[in-house]
Design a protein that fits this description.
This protein is mostly helical. 69% of the residues lie in helices and 0% in strands. The longest helix has 21 residues. The relative contact order is 0.06.
């Protein structure tokens, strides 16, 4: 069995390699479209790597050679430290964990192999938690939290509480990443997120806390839904558009007919910020609220020639979820076809 030192060496190397995904990290925060973007970027990178075999740089100095020797030693430790655990569906000869791919693409089996290793080895889990608590680099904090969150370990709630109490922005963001995965199964985790929303004033942290509630547990009761809604409704009028956008999107997931938000939806569809209007419309596609005021607000967005094309398309898709009469349906379809023609004719 690998020693703690070997595991720690792997963790450090993995974290260093993770800095290569800075661009993906910057893009990560945006919810649904991001998964597709990450997959596309990872596939492109994999294709480029497959089709090219660059020669290693020539070592011209003793220092370069010493560095190469050190990297070889570390890589050897890394290979030994991450022997795949005996998990159904994971091949025993899968090879060295591809940290770059796994951290870029959550669906990669290699990523979940490491998650299973964290689940099965308590010492390794503790080592990774200590790395998380000590880390100060924003990118590595992000990925460590993301990786640990996938274990859904009950201890993560207390770990997140400690990180939030430290008062450091980057640690708080990492803590909310932990809670995003656990709150759908844990009342204590959800309460911690709601508490953060109640006391937070910084827009980036507020948005992160709201997004941490983006997953709704299958056992969410009406009481839970109403409690979440009571924390989000006041934020629909927040001065920061990013906060309003996140609030509308998350509120639509949780309301599920248990809270009357028709007036707020009409306001969201006529918000001064185009992205807020689009986020509200897209939210209605996934979580339709079939009331007349929302329907009229969507038609207003659809028919507004000054509205961005993406917003008008979102309004059309949302309207398709309503029980439209034949004339209304024909109108929506005609405009949808015209939007598609514009896209094809665009240079």
């Amino acid at each position: 069995m690998p020693s703690r030192q070997q595991k720690t060496a792997f963790s450090l190397l993995a974290l260093l390699v993770a800095t290569a995904v800075t661009y993906l990290y910057i893009r990560l925060p945006s919810p649904e479209p991001i998964a597709a973007q990450l997959e596309e970027k990872t596939l492109v990178a994999a294709s480029e790597e497959t089709n090219s075999s660059p020669e290693p740089p020539e070592l011209s100095t003793a220092e370069h050679k010493a560095n190469a020797a050190e990297k070889t030693s570390t890589a050897a430790n890394k290979t030994e430290a991450i022997r795949p655990p005996k998990v159904p569906g994971l091949a025993a000869d899968a090879g060295v964990f591809a940290i770059e791919t796994a951290l870029s693409l959550p669906s990669d089996p290699e990523f979940y192999r490491l998650v299973e290793l964290l689940k099965q080895d308590p010492d390794y889990f503790d080592e990774m938690v200590q790395e998380l608590m000590r880390e100060t680099d924003a990118l590595r904090l992000k990925w460590l939290a993301y990786l640990l969150a996938e274990t859904r370990d009950a201890r993560l709630t207390n770990i997140a509480a400690q990180m939030l109490s430290a008062g450091r922005t980057e640690s708080s963001l990492a803590a909310l990443t932990l809670l995003r995965r656990t709150q759908q199964h844990s009342e204590a985790a959800r309460q911690l997120v709601l508490q953060t929303i109640s006391h937070q004033t910084e827009a980036p942290l507020l948005v992160a806390a709201i997004n941490a509630l983006s997953r709704v547990g299958t056992n969410a009761s009406t009481k839970h839904r109403q409690q979440v809604a009571s924390h989000l409704l006041p934020l629909l009028a927040h001065q920061e558009a990013s906060v309003r956008r996140a609030s509308y999107s998350t509120l639509l997931r949780w309301s599920n007919g248990s809270v009357d938000i028709a007036p707020q939806l009409a306001a969201g569809l006529s918000d001064s910020d185009a992205k807020v209007r689009r986020s509200t419309a897209f939210g209605l596609i996934r979580n339709p609220h079939l009331d007349q005021s929302t329907k009229l607000a969507l038609f207003s967005m659809l028919n507004d020639t000054e509205e961005p094309l993406r917003n008008r398309k979102a309004a059309a898709m949302a309207l398709m979820r309503f029980g439209l009469n034949s004339d209304e349906n024909a109108h929506v379809e005609a405009l949808t076809h015209s939007f598609n023609r514009k896209r094809k004719s665009a240079p």
